[in-house]
Amino acid sequence: MKSLRHPWIDRLMATNAWVVYAFFYLPILVLVVFSFNASARVGIWGGVSPRWYGEVLGNAEVLDALKNSLIVSGISTIVSTIIGTAAALAIDRYRFRGRRGLDGMLYLPIIIPDVTMAVMMLLFFARVFDIVELVGPRWQLGVTTIVISHVAFNIAFVAVVVRARLGQIDKSLEEAARDLYAGAWQTFRRVTLPLIMPGVLGGALLALTLSLDDVVVTSFVAGPGSTTLPIYVFGLIRRGVSPQINAISSLMLIASIALVGLSLLLQRNPQDAILPDERLKET
Amino acid sequence: MTKAAVELSGVTKHFGEVVALKGIDLAIADGEFFSLLGPSGCGKTTTLRLIAGFEFPTSGSIQIHGKEMALEPPDARPINTVFQSYALFPHMNVERNVGFGLQMKKVNSNEIATRVGRALDMVQLSHRANAKPDQLSGGMQQRVALARALVNEPEVLLLDEPLGALDLKLRQQMQIELKELQERVGITFIYVTHDQEEALTMSDRIGVMDKGELLQVGTPKEIYESPTSRFVADFIGDISLLAVSVVSPTEVRLSGGGNVPADTSNAGDGSHWLALRPESLHLVSAAADVPDGMVRIPGKVRHRVYYGDSYFYDVETTAGSLDVRQENRPGLPTFDAGTELMVWWNPAAGSLVTA
Ligand SMILES: Nc1ncnc2c1ncn2[C@@H]1O[C@H](COP(=O)(O)OP(=O)(O)OP(=O)(O)O)[C@@H](O)[C@H]1O
Ligand SMILES: [Mg+2]
User: Fold this and answer.
1) I need a surface site. Which of A116, A181, B25, B309 has the fewest CB within 10 A?
2) Calpha distance B82→B161 (Å, rounded)
3) ipTM exceeds 0.90
């Protein structure tokens, strides 16, 4: 088909697209390529080698940080997904005093800066520690405080994603379930939950990604021995760029891509897979 | 006396400031096809939702087969609903949609399979048992919704404009199917519609609603031929309304002068009109042609419209304007615009309505 626009506009737009993509993907390409650099000197190419991956996987500190990251992100994702989904359901479905206020406040953790959130959490824990100490046991910063902080900021993200999904659901579906003798719990389990599941999973994956990535909040509330992977990388880089960082970052990149891919796969509507002509056949 | 399938007494419903229902009294018999008819916002859906249990009345009682159920949740009522949007579960196939109610009632799986199979046969959808709702046409989805409700053998089936989303042809076909089905299974149907023709052709009885009130309940014939209020007369079909005043139990005075016979025994307080259907009015060129005992007034043709099977006249008289439908039959005279003539009707054909 002949374009109605001037050919040079088409060419300009095409070039623009390429520039944008290059802007995103060249650094990634550089990172991945240099993670296979055999030379220990950053910026000098010494041939292809999986050497740094071997070193990373043999590095106890890295493995320890990875373990912490998995624990923190795993627990905080599960907890924040449950609480966030419950909050979304409550705000969407029930009319109670203070509902509107709660609705607005839900977005606060999303818009306040990470640093503010971090300071808030730290001050909060300081108070809590004082109170706990009165009762007896000593409690200090560590994996638990990181998990609590991550839950605190993730709830909002989960709730927002689930609410978006809830908004798309026809309320008469739940009434239909009640009409067909399902009690409140059966209605939730067999109709509401399956229908909001893509939203719940989407929210959970978002929470997982945010938790795995977080540096600012975590660095405030982490204690000795509770270093997560991003904090470890951040520490390393302050001592100069090491080829190990390239390998770790490449691995994290692959994990992120896998998570995003998974989330897209889960959110895909199975009905969309049906070919249109299949649908038309019967009508 | 057998208990009514559904009986509403003094049912009101307020939504905050909005008064959706202002005191509904209604008894629907077992096995009846009952339609609720009325303009948008009159409270039809609200009435149905109260019977289903999706809303609770502000005051009043709702009995189902003699049992008070006004405050019971929907899953405790022997009633099923066909929703206007069908509300089929999008994540379940046709079979699982239809079997949902039985599954919730913990019927054993063999029996579920048999009954679902039978229900799908009944609506001729056995070959689509594994399809997801969005793979079906509108008419098929409608039939799935029907099967999903009927498979539970409810005592009462509620239908909220179930054909509203279908195109005209499918709609007419489904009207016939629905009526046949109801006669076959003998379940009480409470059917909400704002389509008067649908209500007239399908129902055993019709309740006409306006602004949260039930104005008249009766057979289609009663509603059409003997409306009691101006609103009902005007809402159903084409009708001419002549302002009149009651002068005696058998006579009214037309606004242009002259008394005509009419049954005024049911006249309530307020202003009165004589309601006349276009098909019960007749036109002749001279007073001598009017049969004995008929009411007659002189008039003048303002417009004439040709409808193929009939002519439609707008006739101006001293009492007001009248819409007249005359069959297009060889031998019957036709009248041009401007012609002076006589309009006549049988006194029994006019209904006195109040507003
Ligand atoms: N949940 C609600 N909250 C507030 N007002 C409501 C609610 N449901 C119904 N109403 C009001 O009650 C009145 C009756 O509504 P209803 O839905 O019963 O009308 P309807 O006869 O079914 O109309 P339609 O033909 O448009 O479906 C309307 O004024 C409507 O705005
Ligand atoms: Mg309605």
Assistant:
1) B309
2) 9
3) no
